[in-house]
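Retro notes (design track)

What went well: tokenization of the new backbones is finally stable.
What didn't: we kept losing track of which sequence belonged to which structure.
Fix going forward: every design gets posted as structure first, then sequence, in one message. First example under the new rule, 450 residues:
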């Protein structure tokens, strides 16, 4: 049987320190098919680097830089300070220091360059750890030579044909000779500048690598043993899911299950690549297989929660028996590059949520200028501090009598917006942020756990 190609991604928690890195190296070295290894920055490093990109005094930035330096050099020290590795890590740290301590105007382009150091450092160190652990040939690859995007810094859009071409040239020849360690999250735009795929984007990178080499399996190794029926941090007796469909996993990730970046399933679905989610701490425990078709198709499989939602209610009597109002509303939003997520309408009003921009997580894209334009032809009400709860499963649009018991069990809760029927895989609604976790617990107990 010909070799399989597996792409394995290890998240920040799996790269936390040398012990964690060695666990990952042992997962890789026990399976010759794991050919492309995509790693995230060590736990907490991207947050630290982000702090370097916001307004800080030089002294504050120095302290953050020192913490980053100490963390990475201490892993190298535990590894026995191999001279070649120290050279590479010191070079990266010097370059980071030069960029961050220089006085300059922070641009989205510079921000992405600074953020890229997390993955560049972790992947450099992990390459050495894997070499020592496996004794195999291991090649470090700069992901920016393969993952090509547009220039929307901070949330760049992959260019699939360009990635495919770059993979044939810069990745396939290496694949024949050795294992490859590369970075998640980072990419490059047509002029060669560094871009990033948005927070948590390493899962997406790994899926793009898997698509580019026609991989058989994409593995996501993380700090939970599987995808659970809901976030185990909210419901301690949530159950691990053995098998889930592409569509259900896509809905879960889009609606807030942090275990997968929202776009991860897109390349996997395009190329029908099976995805495995497992724990790098307990690799022996069964994880979750995400496949095109599952044996069982429960009506309700899981619940996800997405925080920090803003509801925009646009009200106008002009809507009554007229045409063109929605087009006018969406035109204003489109002109300001505001992407809408959920929409419901009545005869005289429209309620919508905005797709959260990773660079503006507080939804500040709805600035006074946009509001002024909308207010020319409507009344606008904004409700903040909401959470979106999604029930994910199968045939939800065709299941009679589902919403009655769901909303019946939430009689004390004010539901702000309900979306049901647009997808057969989800039923979602908005509630106040401070009630959201309780709502998840109630629904999980009543509809999932039993
Ligand atoms: N349905 C779910 N199943 C499993 N984990 C979930 C789910 N929803 C949210 N999570 C959270 O996702 C976390 C893993 O994602 P993340 O922190 O991004 O990991 P990594 O560092 O490996 O990328 C888990 O610790 C868990 O709390
Ligand atoms: N390091 C990046 C990308 C990433 O995906 O990280 P993680 O796999 O730890 O979620 C971030 O923190 O956003």
């Amino acid at each position: 049987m010909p070799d399989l190609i597996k792409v394995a991604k290890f998240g920040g928690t799996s790269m936390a320190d040398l012990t964690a890195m060695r666990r990952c190296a042992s997962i890789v070295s026990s399976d010759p098919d794991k050919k492309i290894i995509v790693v995230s920055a060590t736990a907490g490093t991207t947050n630290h680097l982000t702090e370097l990109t916001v307004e800080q005094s030089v002294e504050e930035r120095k302290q953050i830089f020192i913490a980053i330096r100490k963390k990475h050099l201490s892993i190298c020290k535990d590894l026995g300070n191999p001279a070649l590795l120290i050279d590479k890590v010191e070079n990266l740290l010097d370059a980071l220091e030069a960029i961050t301590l220089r006085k300059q105007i922070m641009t989205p382009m510079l921000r992405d360059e600074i953020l890229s150091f997390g993955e560049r450092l972790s992947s450099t160190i992990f390459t050495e750890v894997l070499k020592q652990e496996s004794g195999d040939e291991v090649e470090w690859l700069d992901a920016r030579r393969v993952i090509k995007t547009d220039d929307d810094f901070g949330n760049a859009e992959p260019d699939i044909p360009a990635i495919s071409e770059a993979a044939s040239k810069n990745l396939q020849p290496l694949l024949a000779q050795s294992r490859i360690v590369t970075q998640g999250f980072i990419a490059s735009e047509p002029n060669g500048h560094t871009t990033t795929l948005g927070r948590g984007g390493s899962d997406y990178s790994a899926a793009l690598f898997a698509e580019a080499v026609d991989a058989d399996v994409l593995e996501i190794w993380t700090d939970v043993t599987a995808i659970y029926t809901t976030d185990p941090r909210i419901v301690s007796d949530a159950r691990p899911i053995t098998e889930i469909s592409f569509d259900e996993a896509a809905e879960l990730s889009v609606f807030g299950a942090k275990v997968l970046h929202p776009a991860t399933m897109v390349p996997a679905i395009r190329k029908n690549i099976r995805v495995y989610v497992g724990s790098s701490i307990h690799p022996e425990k069964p994880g979750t297989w995400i496949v095109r078709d599952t044996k069982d198709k429960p009506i309700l499989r899981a619940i996800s929660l997405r925080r920090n939602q803003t509801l925009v209610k646009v009200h106008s009597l002009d809507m009554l028996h007229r045409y063109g109002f929605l087009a006018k509303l969406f035109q204003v939003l489109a002109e300001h590059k505001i992407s809408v997520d959920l929409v419901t309408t009545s005869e005289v009003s429209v309620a919508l949520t905005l797709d959260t921009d990773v660079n503006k997580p507080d939804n500040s894209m709805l600035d006074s200028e946009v509001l002024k334009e909308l207010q020319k032809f409507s009344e606008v009400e904004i409700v903040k501090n909401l959470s979106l709860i999604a029930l994910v499963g199968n045939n939800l649009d065709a299941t009679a009598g589902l919403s009655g018991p769901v909303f019946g069990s939430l009689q004390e809760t004010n539901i702000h917006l309900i979306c049901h029927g647009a997808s057969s895989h989800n039923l979602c609604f908005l509630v106040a942020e401070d009630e959201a976790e309780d709502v998840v617990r109630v629904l999980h107990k009543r509809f999932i756990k039993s």
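Added context from the reviewer: The chain has a mean pLDDT of 92.
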